[in-house]
Design goal:
single chain; mainly alpha
Length: 160
């Protein structure tokens, strides 16, 4: 990597790291507040139809692959490896650091729960939707932003 591309890439890695830390810290802090304030299985009305709950999830986002054990670990490891390789190759793309940080922060938030609790702590419940947490929201929003960034860059490349 030349000096001309090293500085923007380093800035992108730094920004992704800051987003990662912000997501991870927020996720873990809110989970501590929820587990300190609600018994496991308890729920309270939060805002309109939104409920605050204290539940566990052994699957991936929104309960997929529930009780998946090793399969869940393998899926997460593959996804994170692909993301890191993509980011390493594309760190200089505008805004790609944002979804990368969100995805890594969300994944690490849920991995932290798996290590500490054996399952992910979920605490927000919408009607007709599985319970989720800050990490899940960051992952979901991060995927959407990543697709937008990639599509925007692809359209710009086709115009030139």
């Amino acid at each position: 990597m030349s000096g001309a591309t090293a500085a923007p890439a380093l800035r992108a890695w730094s920004r992704a790291a800051l987003v990662l830390v912000a997501v991870l810290t927020t996720d873990q802090l809110v989970k501590v507040l929820v587990t300190d304030g609600l018994l496991r299985g308890e729920q309270r009305d939060l805002l309109g139809p939104i409920k605050l709950v204290n539940t566990r999830n052994t699957g991936v986002a929104f309960g997929q692959l529930e009780n998946g054990g090793v399969i869940v670990g393998v899926v997460i490891a593959i996804a994170l490896t692909v993301l890191l390789v993509f980011f390493a190759r594309n760190a200089c793309r505008p805004l790609v650091w944002l979804p990368t940080g969100m995805l890594l922060g969300g994944a690490l938030g849920n991995i932290t729960d798996r290590i500490r609790e054996g399952a992910v702590i979920d605490f927000l419940k919408l009607p007709h939707w599985p319970a989720f947490n800050v990490a899940d929201a960051a992952i979901t929003i991060g995927v959407v932003i990543l697709f937008v960034v990639i599509e925007r860059d692809n359209r710009a490349a086709h115009r030139s």
